[in-house]
Amino acid sequence: LSDAIIGAIERGEGGKAYLVGDENLTFQEYFGLYFKAAGDDRPLEVRDEPHQFISNGIVCRAPNSTIYVHTPPEDIERLGYRRNDVARTVNLIVSNYLKSRDISG
C-alpha cells in the first residue's frame, strides 16, 4: 500500500481516486497468514456468527467469502506498486513484532 501511495503522489492524476488491490483472499486465508508467520499452520475455523471484535459491517457475512478488488492495469502501471506481496509483508510484520517483544523483555 505504501508503494501505491508513493506512486499516486509522484505519478497520480490530481483529484483521481485509485482503488488499490492485488491478491484476493478470504478472511480465513488472510488472518491465517498471521498465524502461519507466528509458527501455527493449523487452518482457522470458519464460523457463521457475529465476531466479538470485528463488526459485521467490516466482515462479509458469508463463510469463506472473498472480497474481490479489480484494479485496472493502467492504474497498476501508473502507481507502480509491488504485487503478490501480502504473505511477505505479513511475515515482516510478525517478525518485527516478535523482535520488539524480545528487545523489551
Structure description:
The chain is mainly alpha-helical. Helices cover 45% and strands 0% of the residues. The protein has four helices and no strands. Helix 2 crosses helix 4.
Helix and strand topology:
Blueprint: H1 2-11, H2 27-37, H3 73-79, H4 86-104
Helix pairs in contact: 2-4
Key descriptive features of the protein:
single chain; 105 residues; mainly alpha; 4 helices
Helix proportion of residues, in percent? Answer: 40-55%
Main beta-sheet strand count, sense and barrel state? none
Total strands: 0
Question: Outline, from the CA principal axes?
Answer: globular
Strand content: under 5%
SSE string: HHHH
Mean pLDDT: 86
Gap between N and C termini = 31 Å
| Helical/strand content category | mainly alpha
Please tell me how large the radius of gyration is.
17 Å
Instruction: Pick out the low-confidence regions.
Output: none
Compute the number of helices: 4
Can you summarize this structure?
The chain has 4 helices and no strands. By secondary structure, the protein is mostly helical.
